[in-house]
Amino acid sequence: MAQVIRVALVAGEASGDILGSGLMQALKAQYPDVEFIGVGGPLMEAQGLTSYFPMERLSVMGLVEVLGRLPELLARRKRLLRSLIEAKPDVFIGIDAPDFNLDLELKLRRAGIRTVHYVSPSVWAWRQKRVLKIRDACDLMLTLFPFEAQFYDAHQVPVRFVGHPLADTIELQADRAAAREALGLPQGVPLLALMPGSRGGEVGRLGTLFLDAAERLRARRPGIHFVLPCASPQRRAQIEQLLVGRDLPLTLLDGQSHKALAACDAVLIASGTATLEALLYKRPMVVAYKVAPLTYRILKRLVKSPYISLPNLLAARLLVPELIQDAATPDALADAVAPLLVDGAIQTEGFDVIHRALRRDASAQAADAVLTLIGVRHATGA
């Protein structure tokens, strides 16, 4: 009879809950005699996680909000540490949420529990000295991207590149016509997706800029249509306010960003994780980035990476235009986007190469790495 292994996991937000549930499902497929404890959301609980407290208590965005909740977060982490040491799991897996998980991993590892961190923080881009704490805190780092694994290799941190789950779930070719039909969008005309971000601050900085660029594009291409997926009712209201007084052939969507990407010919997009989704849908893009002037001056000194967007980081070259801060003007954005509506093959060919490299059955790869770390032979014999 196979031994039962106990796996502890902690996820702090919805994206971590998705990753965690996929990993748990893959662990059960490879080694059915496993039990799960820790903190997670509804998807992880559906896979059998016994959650010590609701994941929402860790889901805090913004410096002021974190400071306001700091006493509670520190107290929860202290109690969780005590509970996990008592439970003696075979391995602990911290999923993203580095500010919460890395300290937890450090203390658990010192208590003799093997630790894994799943999803690298952006340590390769800024605050690189954090890699020293990561090296002390975890027995294994699981990365979604190959350039991250190269960074950890160079700093003597045990690492495995597992691929990205989105690359597994998004098809290599999206049906543009079917997506347009599903969304009620016109066929046979140029369609540009506008994606100014999911947070209020991002939309505040980029929303007007993107709409101004759209007006300039319409003057050049009278038949063009635009689609803008809104991340929430609040963002939709914010965009509607920005549209007052404008006459643009624009369709607003409630969510459905993946369908918008499948439907469009090109994307004007805020720098962030959505650029990876646009890449996986093989839609040529122009990336824009704007922050408060003081924040930009600070980041410019701190950030070590030559690029800000994931497509360029993954390609290790300037594959997509990046218009940053003062360079991001309506005319400059329109000039960069216009040729992509006609031919974006150089970008999309590069995107296809990257997609195939990231398509590795990430959850199964991660599960295999965890079981190998703790010395458990897969029940499947793999």
Number of domains: 2
* Structural class computed from helices and strand pairing: alpha/beta
Low-confidence stretches: 61-65
Average pLDDT confidence is 91
Query: DSSP strand (E) fraction?
Result: 15-25%
Instruction: Supply the number of helical segments.
Output: 17
Keywords: Glycosyltransferase, Lipid A biosynthesis, Lipid biosynthesis, Lipid metabolism, Transferase
Family: Belongs to the LpxB family.
Pathway: Bacterial outer membrane biogenesis; LPS lipid A biosynthesis
Catalytic activity: a lipid X + a UDP-2-N,3-O-bis[(3R)-3-hydroxyacyl]-alpha-D-glucosamine = a lipid A disaccharide + UDP + H(+)
Explained architecture:
Its EC number is 2.4.1.182. Belongs to the LpxB family. It is an enzyme of class 2 (transferase). It catalyses: a lipid X + a UDP-2-N,3-O-bis[(3R)-3-hydroxyacyl]-alpha-D-glucosamine = a lipid A disaccharide + UDP + H(+). InterPro entries: Glyco_trans_19. This protein is an alpha/beta fold. It folds into 2 domains: 5-163 and 360-373, 3-Layer(aba) Sandwich (Rossmann fold); 176-358, Rossmann fold. It has 17 helices and 13 strands. The strands form 2 sheets. Strands 3-2-1-4-5-6-7 form a 7-stranded parallel beta sheet, sandwiched between helices. Strands 10-9-8-11-12-13 form a 6-stranded parallel beta sheet, sandwiched between helices. The longest helix has 25 residues, at 63-87. The radius of gyration is 22 Å and the shape is elongated.
